[in-house]
Design brief:
It is a single chain. Helix content is 46%, strand content 17%. It has 882 residues and is of the alpha/beta class. Bound molecules: phosphoenolpyruvate (PEP) and magnesium ion.
Length: 882
């Protein structure tokens, strides 16, 4: 016998998921569990791949196997394909291994033709039903298999709905009207294809199978797979199944149900149904479906059976199920079951509840939740009832990309300075911009949330907002922002500056007015879940935190220390920037010391508070890193103001600004080079650190400072900087009489440092991979300019992922591996971490686990995400399709 391309439902099941797709496997599983499923068969994913290999031709032997299987279905149902007296109709659906909702095609009511429609009308005594089924078949087959534009059909239907008193729904159309519609649909098909719609059911079936295979490579499907990282090589299966009719009179219906609430996770049957309808009506939103609870009153017996089936399926799969069902003249049929998609909140609650119900173990629970989904939970969310009400009342304004999670309300402000001013007065504002640039940063910090008309998920606004944990929606294309008029127009409405809006960065929605939100709860199920996560996790998780406030939040989110405190941010706030500028303008070490002396107490105080917040945990503090010009004023007015405040001439300051201008600042006078030329800076920072540590230790706080030198490329650079730190540490300890446990280490963020890691580790007591810079220097791509060309790389698949978001394991990853191995070879107890953006990205965390790093460090909001990713890495499994 040749290759087996076709499986009866009964022959399938979860074990054959690769071959039969999720839908096919689910139907097999249900059949074997004795759940009512209309008979049918599945064509394998291998057949799909063979179809493409043969240049889009059905593989040898497939058609004969389909005919055999069809014959069996005929025998079991007592119906016959194309027989007007007892017609068998089938659905032809796609079904890949991973669910790709709505991305591929489906044809229902296949087997219809003129004679069958006539016969079906006679048989059921319901001509209306028969012609409704026929027109649906023509419409779907025309659109999907024959490529006729859908609007051509919609226009005709719409014209009929407009007839008669008021606007009618399609259930109001009469049999005669539907018959006319069928004729017109056939005409549309002839016009567009030059041929009649096929009347031969076998011909229909062959074409439909090929069309479903074709839809695997359709644009939508390819794009969906790219985003969800599903390989193109999996192929789709095709399910051919006896039709049951939810539109066969008043005791028929079709619907979708979840075994638990997919929004909250609550244990209750959840879903909706439409009486007298076929499946696609629910999806297309033609009529508003009824909540499933009403079925309990309308058809109590069917409802009871559905509840039982739901319970059985959930127990069988040990996971929340999303089921499609049809009720045909009072009889329940299950058409599909699969693991249901759910919100982050629901995922956590269901996982915890199921452990407590004894359905799954903790390990499974931890693997069930997608780390990215956890991010949703850490921010306020729009109250669900309020969201629905806002949609109903027409307060929905626009939808953009959900760039940074969380929901916030505030008054519309179009200008970042204005945002800052109003926020300083205690007002809540939303910064609305066509797009944002680094100059808008202060406005973004001041705003409750950010909304832009343009830009993608990695636009400046998106990246910055995620970094500072602000809700953000980008690329809301419907917005037309008119700064002159201080208003925006959106879908025919005008929203003026000062009006309230609500931005939901978790869904991308924007609403008019102030919608109630719910605060994140880090207690209850979340706390229980995170406790289990930590039981499995081996990798440490620290936070990147620059301020005492960040440090406190990091602890709330479970950070076990600070992996990166960027001290430069402390130089920007308030008056400190002027002292910094004085320092830069100084011409002698004495002048520099005098200026630094003004900053030192402020810096010390920040460290005191950070150490207190991190009592008992290590704190990595990095010495000054950015190019100095970043601290100098740019425009004339600011130059004049600064010159006056710090007592230098405008001309001198202007010259300094010009002198510090660099061709390539990221490779210029920055990192440890600053401390090498101006050792006073390192000295001052070290003193602030150790004095703060001494103060805290005297209070009984357990401190563990780790001083980190940035951008080291050669052991000698580190040696001279480390000497300063050790000398100051000794001085402070001698003066205060305290022994402070501390370490001196370095960032590994240029390739040479990774290659020379053994020699660097002779000096460094710890490493932290600065993968932002390491990526930049390994690729030779400026992290600030990559936005110009990287999107094209991703679009054309020159790179699979943005290497500034997902660690490039092939290249940068090699350096991380080499650096770790060589470093530890020289110093076995070397502590190794990572503090680039990648430290909070699940795939990269998994890699860090595999390489054997001691910890990852990421923004406080990402800490729970990293904890979960680390636990899943330890459990050694991928999660997907949850
Ligand atoms: C890095 O380069 O990865 C890093 C954490 O430092 P920064 O982003 O401050 O350059
Ligand atoms: Mg860096």
């Amino acid at each position: 016998m040749g290759k087996k391309w076709v499986y009866r439902f009964e022959e399938g099941g979860e074990a054959l998921r690769d071959l039969l797709g999720g839908k096919g496997a689910g139907l097999g599983e249900m059949c074997r569990a004795g759940i009512p499923v209309p008979p049918g068969f599945v064509i394998t994913t291998e057949a799909c791949n063979a179809y493409y290999e043969a240049g889009r031709r059905l593989p040898e032997g497939l058609w004969e196997q389909v005919l055999d299987a069809l014959r069996e279905v005929e025998e079991r149902t007592g119906k016959r394909f194309g027989d007007p007296d007892r017609p068998l109709l089938v659905s032809v659906r796609s079904g890949a291994k991973f669910s790709m909702p709505g991305m591929m095609d489906t044809v229902l009511n296949l087997g219809m033709n003129d004679a069958v429609a006539e016969g079906l009308g006679r048989l059921t005594g319901d001509a209306r039903f028969a012609y409704d089924a026929y027109r649906r078949f023509l419409q779907m087959f025309g659109r999907i298999v024959l490529d006729v534009p859908g609007e051509a059909f919609d226009r005709i239907l719409e014209a009929y709905r407009q007839r008669g008193p008021g606007l009618r729904q399609d259930t109001d159309l009469t049999a005669e009207e539907l018959r006319e519609i069928c004729e017109q649909f056939k005409e549309v098909i002839r016009e567009h294809t030059g041929q009649h719609a096929p009347q031969d059911p076998f011909e229909q079936l062959r074409l439909a199978i090929a069309a479903v295979f074709d839809s695997w490579m359709g644009r939508r499907a390819v794009e969906y797979r790219r985003v969800h990282r599903i390989p193109d090589t999996l192929g789709t299966a095709v399910t051919v199944q006896t039709m049951v009719f939810g539109n066969l009179g008043p005791h028929s219906a079709t619907g979708v149900a979840f075994t638990r609430n997919p929004v909250t996770g609550e244990k209750q049957l959840y879903g909706e149904y439409l009486p007298q309808a076929q499946g696609e009506d629910v999806v297309a939103g033609i009529r508003t479906p009824k909540p499933i609870a009403e079925l309990a009153e309308e058809m109590p017996e069917v409802y009871r059976e559905l509840v039982q089936v739901a319970e059985r399926l959930e127990r069988h799969y040990r996971d929340m199920q999303d089921m499609e069902f049809t009720i045909e003249e009072g009889r329940l049929w299950m058409l599909q079951t699969r693991a249901g998609k759910r919100t982050g909140a629901a995922a956590v609650r269901i996982a915890v509840d199921m452990v407590q119900e004894g359905l799954i173990d903790k390990r499974t629970a931890v693997l069930r939740v997608d780390p990215e989904q956890l991010a949703q939970l850490l921010h306020p969310t729009v109250d669900e009832a309020a969201r629905e009400a806002a949609h109903r009342d027409g307060r929905f304004l626009a939808r953009g990309l959900p760039a940074s999670p969380g929901a916030q309300s505030g008054r519309v402000v179009f200008d970042p300075d204005e945002a800052e001013r109003r926020a300083a007065r205690g007002e809540r504002v939303i910064l609305v911009r066509p797009e944002t640039s680094p100059e808008d940063f202060h406005g973004m910090v001041a705003a409750q949330a950010v909304l832009t008309a343009r830009g993608g998920m990695t636009s400046h606004a998106a990246v910055v907002a995620r970094g500072i944990g602000k809700p953000c929606v980008v690329g809301a294309e419907a917005l037309v922002i008119d700064r002159e008029a201080q208003e925006m127009r959106v879908n025919g409405r005008v929203v003026r500056a000062g009006e309230w809006i609500t931005v939901d960065g978790s869904t991308g929605e924007v609403f008019l007015g102030e919608l109630p939100t719910r605060e994140p709860t880090l207690t209850g199920e979340f706390a229980t879940f995170m406790q289990w996560v930590d039981e499995f996790r081996k990798l440490g998780v620290r936070a990147n935190a620059d301020t005492p406030e960040d440090a406190r939040r990091a602890r709330q989110f479970g950070a076990e220390g600070i992996g990166l405190c960027r001290t430069e941010h402390m130089f920007f706030t308030g008056d400190r920037i002027y002292a910094m500028r004085e320092m830069i303008m100084a011409t002698t070490p004495e002048e520099r010391r005098a200026a630094l002396a003004k900053i030192e107490p402020l810096q010390r105080q920040d460290f005191v508070e950070i150490f207190r917040a991190m009592d008992g945990y290590p704190v990595v503090i990095r010495t000054l890193d950015p190019p100095l010009h970043e601290f100098l004023p740019l425009d004339e007015e600011a130059i004049r103001e600064t010159a006056q405040r710090i007592g230098v001439s405008v001309e001198a300051l202007r010259q300094k600004v010009a002198a510090l201008r660099e061709f390539n600042p990221m490779m210029g006078f920055r990192g440890c080079r600053l401390g090498i030329l101006y050792p006073e800076i390192t000295e001052m920072q070290a003193r602030a650190i150790f004095e703060a540590a001494a103060i805290c230790q005297a209070e009984g706080v357990h401190v563990e400072p780790e001083v980190m030198i940035p951008l080291v490329a050669d052991p000698n650079e580190l040696r001279v900087q480390a000497e300063i730190v050790h000398r100051v540490a000794q001085e402070v300890m001698a003066r205060t009489g305290q022994r402070i446990p501390y370490r001196v280490g370095t960032m590994i963020e240029v390739p040479r440092a990774a290659l020379l890691a053994d020699r660097i580790a002779e000096v460094a007591e710890f490493f932290s991979f600065g993968t932002n810079d390491l990526t930049q220097f390994t690729f030779g791509m400026s992290r600030d300019d990559a936005g110009r060309f990287l999107p094209r790389y991703l679009e054309h698949k020159l790179l699979r992922e943005d290497p500034f978001q997902v660690l490039d394991q092939d290249g940068v990853g090699q350096l991380v591996r080499i650096g770790t191995e060589r470093g530890r070879a020289a110093r076995p107890d070397l502590e190794v971490g990572i503090c680039g953006e990648h430290g909070g990205e699940p795939q990269s965390v998994r890699f860090c686990h595999a390489v054997g790093l001691d910890y990852v460090s990421c923004s406080p909001y990402r800490v729970p995400v990293a904890r979960l990713a680390a636990a899943q890495a330890a459990l050694g499994e991928l999660t997907r399709d949850v």
